[in-house]
Amino acid sequence: MSAVDLDLLADYVGGALDGTPEHDRVARLVADDPAWRSAAADLRSALLLVDADLAALAAAAEPMPDDIAARFDTLLASPEFAASPAAPARSGVGERTLSRDARGARPARRGWRRWAAPVAVAVGVLALAGVVLPLGPLATTRQEAATGMSAEDAPAVAPADGRTPISASGTDYLREQLGDADVMTQKSAPSASAARTGDTQLYTSPMPGLDRLSGSADALASCLAAIRTALPGTVTGADFARFEGRPALVVTVDTTSGGWWFVAGPGCGLNGADELFRSHRN
């Protein structure tokens, strides 16, 4: 038998020829030719031995060779795998805009009730985890007058022990509004019981672009920590909303230099605060 014949016979024994015309031809050769029949028997015996060896190897964990392990240790200790140093804390000075993407059309604020529930869930888990947000409700804006929706109308979670509510107003904030000292009007946040009465409304999905933050307490906590690193101070409120048509978390921060607005994008907490805008609040 030639090498080509043995290769074809191996395909036959291994099942690679099933359903092909070659399968029937090789089957006839195995049945009629003693050389093919003997070779097929040898291949089947060899396959059984290979299966047994593979089963034995799978049953016992094979340790990594010392030289390979040492190479991995050296690689992981190299600068390429070193953690990126955290950005130094900056004092908030002046107004900053880090993204000037095309703003596009700002969609209507319909549907905010559908994505408020995941925000409430995330805040509830934050409270259970011991993450305390200091007291201080978010602002209302001039846009409330245009939309007819006030801070009392927006869904929010306000724990009864005085922690800051995290609201989901859906407000589309403008930089001109956030730069105005009169943009904030202090209002009392809805109580925890009032927030619970909203269970008669149907909340089906988070706001597109903010579902990672609204659906995970850990993601939201990482975002707020990144904001405190970028703008050292006390977070006094957070609103799942929009900034000039883009999904954003609008946060109020009190620092030694005064109050600030800080607008974070959907990537907040992944690699920094994903800062879109900041401005003095008063």
TrEMBL record:
Region (Disordered): 85-109, 146-166
Keyword Transmembrane helix assigned: yes
Keywords: Membrane, Transmembrane, Transmembrane helix
Spans through the membrane: 115-136
Protein name: Uncharacterized protein
Protein source organism: Catellatospora chokoriensis
